Task: inverse folding
């Protein structure tokens, strides 16, 4: 048995094969995350197409709820495909996941609108999001493990960092395809039906992925384990009964997956909605800014993967968490002051205060129950920063002056007179540079916490249950803590009227992740990946 294990760990490396392994796995990850992220990129359009109301904020929230549903089903996909990956092999499992994802994404682009087929449209959309979630639950673990089990031990962080970069690459590709399609078809066609083309484009990406991945052979570690007859009979059960694995799963979930994902999604989605919705920056310009920041930020994911081969996996993650807690609010305030300084200035010089005996506000409600709630709803639609107070009667004050007429029309006139501008803005070049640098700094924080994680999680768990044990906590953490970030953060913003308030969700999750990582995250650099092949821990 020892010779089998040694053969697996000392597997002879081949440069040409290694390049194919990294390229096929990483590109497949890019394409699969493109499929998943294209929904989030086009959330406002999806909202008005499949969840139409008279309130754009409500449409966005419903659309983001559908986005979150896909993430919610990722853990189930991790269980299903983790079982298949530990029993049948790494290669064929992530072939199945990419087929499921590609087909589901293309069908979103072909789905009739709610105006055409009624409630059936959003019901089918949610079903397709569930399919995407299941597929993604199996994809990441398969690709990450496949590359890790081919990599030489001293380059494992560097090799697997391309898988981590592939997640961001999928987001960038979704932005590029959206912007390119808009440019080709024109705004009128885009708004009518052209937005569907990026979803159908998934079929071409699926064909490329299948062509590349069919060239791959099975992982050498899995082959050695199969030859030794050491595959887990029930990977899910063993994941929670294998000695010490419960703690490893807990730490992987709360100390790794949850923390890194909320940072990553703050970079990709929170920043985009912040600029586009709260600061009213032109949507196309917003996508260009976010796309440029994340594209050039890919370097950090590769760099920190490479660095982890020298300084260890844990140190960059812990430092990245701590830096996020210190820098997140300053970065967003810097972006806000650069993107639309008028909004920040007016929040100080002409603050809006809404008060009443009952100022409860439900962003999902079509009609608010109280007069105060209706005022908050109107201000929320306008993207006006407000604060709430308690008083005997419902009233609104602007710049300290109580308004005798608090109807929406009169309130708009007062706000306009005070300098509030509800039109979209295009910041000057100097401000765009500042926003880009802020996005680059967010990318660095994300790269520090994300770049080495595929190597870390592969090394953390024994080979016989690696696919299941790695995928389950990763997708619970990313699916629930990260997947619900756009919905929760935008809900907080809508409820409070403060465009920065949604960042508290990220802060709380990262603070808890830092505490768990300091307590229980071991250093894994240098661990052999054959643990568990011959029954060893």
Result:
């Amino acid at each position: 048995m020892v010779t089998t294990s040694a053969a697996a760990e000392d597997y002879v490396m081949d440069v040409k094969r290694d390049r194919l392994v990294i390229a096929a796995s990483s590109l497949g990850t890019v394409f699969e995350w493109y499929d998943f992220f294209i929904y989030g990129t086009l959330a406002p359009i999806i909202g008005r197409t499949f969840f139409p109301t008279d309130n754009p904020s409500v449409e966005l929230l419903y659309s983001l709820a559908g986005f979150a549903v896909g993430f919610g089903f990722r853990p189930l996909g991790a269980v299903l495909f983790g079982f298949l990956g530990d029993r049948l092999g790494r290669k064929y499992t992530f072939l199945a996941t990419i087929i499921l994802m590609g087909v589901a994404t293309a069908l979103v682009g072909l789905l009739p609108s709610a105006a055409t087929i009624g409630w059936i449209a959003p019901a089918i959309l949610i079903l397709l999001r569930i399919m995407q979630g299941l597929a993604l639950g199996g994809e990441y673990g398969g690709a990450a493990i496949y590359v890790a089990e081919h990599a030489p031990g001293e380059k494992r962080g560097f090799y697997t960092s391309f898988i981590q970069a592939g997640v961001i690459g999928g987001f960038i590709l979704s932005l590029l395809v959206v912007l390119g399609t808009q440019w080709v078809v024109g705004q009128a066609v885009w708004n009518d039906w052209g937005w569907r083309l990026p979803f159908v484009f998934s079929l071409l990406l699926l064909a490329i992925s299948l062509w590349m991945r069919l060239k791959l052979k099975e992982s050498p570690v899995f082959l050695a384990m199969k030859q030794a007859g050491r595959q887990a009979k029930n990977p899910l059960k063993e994941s929670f009964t294998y000695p010490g694995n419960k703690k490893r799963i807990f730490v992987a979930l709360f100390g790794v997956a949850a923390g890194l994902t909320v940072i990553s999604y703050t970079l990709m989605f929170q920043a985009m909605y912040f600029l586009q919705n709260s600061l009213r920056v032109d949507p196309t310009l917003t996508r260009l800014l976010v796309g440029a920041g994340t594209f050039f930020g890919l370097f950090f994911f590769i760099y920190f993967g490479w660095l982890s081969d020298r300084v260890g996996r844990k140190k960059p993650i812990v430092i990245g968490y701590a830096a996020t807690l210190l820098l997140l609010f300053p970065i967003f305030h810097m972006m806000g002051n650069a993107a639309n300084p008028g909004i920040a200035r007016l929040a100080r010089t002409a603050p809006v205060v809404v008060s009443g005996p009952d100022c409860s506000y439900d962003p999902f409600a079509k009609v608010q129950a109280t007069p105060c709630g209706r005022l908050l709803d109107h201000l929320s639609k306008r993207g006006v920063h407000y604060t709430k107070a308690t008083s005997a009667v419902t009233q609104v004050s602007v710049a300290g002056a109580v308004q005798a007429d608090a109807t929406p029309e009169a309130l708009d006139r007062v706000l306009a007179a005070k300098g509030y501008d509800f039109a979209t803005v295009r910041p000057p070049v100097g401000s765009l540079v500042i926003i880009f640098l802020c996005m680059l700094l967010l990318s660095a924080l994300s790269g520090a916490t994300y770049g080495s994680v595929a190597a870390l999680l592969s090394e953390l768990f024994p080979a016989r249950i690696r696919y299941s044990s790695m995928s389950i906590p990763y997708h619970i953490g990313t699916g629930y803590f990260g997947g619900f970030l756009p919905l929760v953060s935008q809900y907080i913003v809508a409820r409070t009227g403060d465009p920065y308030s949604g960042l508290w969700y990220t802060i709380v999750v990262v603070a808890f992740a830092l505490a768990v990582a300091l307590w229980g995250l071991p250093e894994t650099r240098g661990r052999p990946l054959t643990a568990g092949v011959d029954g060893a821990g």
About this structure: Confidence is low (pLDDT under 50) at residues 1-11. DSSP finds 25 helices and four strands in the chain. The CA atoms of residues 462 and 531 lie 5 Å apart.
